[in-house]
């Protein structure tokens, strides 16, 4: 049996070989959560650039670009890195390095070996053609954006996580349903439907997800692929130096999650408004309690253990008003807890934390809409953690699901996405059901 | 459904009266609207049975498909509908004016003095026009399957109207139920609001009847026939089916004429109440004062109407079955940009709409407690005017230092950036740096009124209600990249296969 590291290395070599030698101008790399997607982008761009030809790296958000610039610049201190930005961009300290050049004009970056910019910035580049491009988070990119920049590059490597949220639009129309170049689908979907022969590779190892989570996430959200955790159970553990207080449910769910990697804090069944005060308070209380108890995490990066800090905790929710309510609750508790990252699933995509606390998208709801059922949303929320994930929700979600099967119309010739949100939600709940701690 | 709309509905249910969800009307109501009430034959896709159409509420034109199950008759129906609709459209397209040029747009463009506005009872009526357009616009006027020239022309216009109605800011094709629910909340469900009779009963109950009683009465489909295009099954069984059977069995033209007259009168009875309700709805909406941006948007509708009429006179090919990749991408961007501008314009015009954004933290209203109107800074080589104001608000504003491009509807050319935010739980103090809209020069005081003074009430939001929006470049159609299937054909030219296509 080969080691996960050897598997991952073999996959990387295969991907580079396919990209540089394939007859097709595009190659897709599917990456499960935490499988080293960014590392792949950093390594492949520096390796290709070292051979002498410029490489263009396209990411979706400015923070993704800044992160990539910093990592590439660290890995290849001898290469000139260009940061294509908008005119009033202020470089973050991480980007200000001797080998990084920032400009809003692609012509001023002509002598750079690697140029990194957002897709929406590339839209403004109206001439020129470059041999190599790597598009990061390609499943988050919308097809119409790819249409506007694809002609700038000879060969494109598409890297992304197929389980994440599909791109969205502020308008609703079925006008393009089933059309191969539907501008609302993801860039990868457009590419594959117009070029079915495009080679598809995948990364086989999730370095982020602990052994307690990788098989669960894989079964629920990636049923047609396989990936394994890069670590063994002995390498990841959570310790709670301060014992819990009696039978308080918050402490109990923390205990359970630290042992098993999962916890479901179940409030009594009730239909509530979106910013359910009890659920919000419970979510904030769990985060605060994790910090109060001096939680320590042990992993391959810190075998001696390290104290869990607020910046290593994320709290995820479906809606922005829920995020605002949880942030307010944390501020009210005060102390380190108010420094935790609270955000929507959309904005947590790509990020990694030691512990995550999730307000279940269906908690307290009266109905299950397509938005709340979207498998990508739950997948993002339950696959950000390196140690444990605690879900907060009201009882009755399985019954709610049973009452609301997916009823989205199916359009001729449109791609069906597997698994559908209903099924993924059921799979996840089925697992969480074994880790339930009732409140009170 | 937003919080305020939900509350308006609860209030409506509680008080038994309609509740306004806007203080102004955000839809243009034309001086001479055209009303179109279609009904179709059950069992087949969009098989037209009859329409009531016209711009005179006292003289609706009734067009009945002579033998609705015979497909050629459907094309003849389209021809007769074309005779009603195309003339007013052509007349409007002929009366044009020059669009005044501005600093940004110096090319001379024309627009129609007035554009047509069609009212249908509900969104299904819009879908009827879209499908009618799809069924007729590719027909050939020559050859074995020749139809009258007005048939494909009607199809092209029907498609244009239906496509325009996808844009949030267009008023050329209006679904009455949507226009009403955008203005008023009722105490009933969305589903019930979709029934024009029930909706109008709630919004405008007969004197002496409560809204809820009137709406309950409107559920009787005999006394209140559905607004179509689908018909009431009881009408189908009692009136339509026997009439169609008699029509097929008619031994001579005389009998057929008699049956047709009976059918036409039955159909008119089904449509007349809806016809009256649509006109009543137009009156109700017309009585609400229009928001300032309505005229601006209607000008753009008139420009687009003239541009399309001009295209029809010069190139005149029907709209393709589906958008090519570039066209689709451009259209999606247009849909999004026009929707966000429309949303912003509504909020700028209407305090009740802005309240939604204030509730969700995307806007805040407060009082200026401190202002340094004459502040001048020197960020680079040039001195620039950058007044500072401090605003206190009780709104749950979601802002962080560094947030930029906030605007106050009272000074839309001025931008504000957040310097810092202090909150004590109940009240938030926000310090803003202003730029733009301050006149030229940096000596002397800022022009009077250009900077909010202490005590002024201001509203700041990220919404942008106008001006030019940068969209970046799109490839030309012939440069469609390989990722999207390469370049498609320029125009779709209908083939003989299209002319012979079945109606369904």
Number of strands of chain B: 17
Give the uncertain stretches of chain A in residue-range form: none
Largest interface between protein chains, with number of residues from each side: A-B, 34 and 31 residues
Cross-sheet strand order for the largest sheet of chain B: 14-15-16-13-10-17
Number of domains of chain B: 2
The proportion of strand residues of chain A reads: 15-25%
Terminal CA distance of chain B reads 35 Å
Helix content of chain B: 40-55%
- Backbone structural class of chain A: alpha/beta
Which spans of chain B have pLDDT < 50 for at least 5 consecutive residues? none
Radius of gyration of chain B: 27 Å
Indicate the overall shape of chain A.
globular
Q: Roughly how many Å is the radius of gyration of chain A?
A: 22 Å
Quick structural summary:
The complex is a heterodimer of chains A (440) and B (504). Chain A is α/β, with parallel strands linked by helices and 440 residues long.
What attributes characterize this protein structure?
heterodimer, A: 440 residues, alpha/beta, eight-stranded parallel beta sheet, six-stranded parallel beta sheet, 21% strand, globular, B: 504 residues, alpha+beta, Elongation Factor Tu (Ef-tu), domain 3, 2 domains, six-stranded antiparallel beta sheet, five-stranded mixed beta sheet, 14 helices, 17 strands, 41% helix, 16% strand, hydrolase (chain A), nucleotide-binding (chain A), helicase (chain A), Coronavir_polyprotein_1ab (chain A)
Could you explain how this protein is built, in words?
The complex is a heterodimer of chains A (440) and B (504). The longest helix of chain A is centred in the N-terminal third of the chain and has 18 residues, at 4-21. The model of chain A has no long low-confidence stretch (mean pLDDT 90). Chain A contains 15 helices and 19 strands. Chain A is of the alpha/beta class. Chain A has helices at residues 4-21, 37-50, 62-75, 119-122, 143-149, 187-194, 214-221, 249-260, 277-292, 320-333, 345-348, 370-373, 375-381, 397-403, 421-432, and strands spanning 26-30, 55-59, 81-84, 100-103, 114-118, 130-135, 153-160, 200-202, 205-206, 228-229, 237-239, 262-267, 296-299, 302-307, 313-317, 341-344, 353-359, 385-394, 436-438. In chain A, α5 (143-149) crosses α6 (187-194) and α8 crosses α9. In chain A, the strands form four sheets. Chain A has an eight-stranded parallel β-sheet with strand order 4-3-5-2-6-7-1-8. A six-stranded parallel β-sheet of chain A has the order 16-15-17-18-12-19. A three-stranded antiparallel β-sheet of chain A has the order 11-13-14, with no helix packed on it. Chain B is α+β, with helices and mostly antiparallel strands and 504 residues long. Chain B has two domains: 3-319, no CATH class; 349-461, Elongation Factor Tu (Ef-tu), domain 3, CATH 2.40.30. Chain B contains 14 helices and 17 strands. In chain B, strands 14-15-16-13-10-17 form a six-stranded antiparallel β-sheet. In chain B, strands 4-3-2-7-8 form a five-stranded mixed β-sheet, sandwiched between helices. In chain B, strands 1-9 form a two-stranded antiparallel ribbon. The chains are: A alpha/beta (440), B alpha+beta (504). The A-B interface holds A 25-26, 120, 123-124, 126, 143-144, 146-148, 150-151, 156, 169-171, 173, 175-176, 179-184, 187, 190-191, 194-195, 320-321, 324 and B 166, 168, 322-326, 328-329, 331-333, 335-336, 339-340, 360-361, 396, 398, 472-475, 479-485.
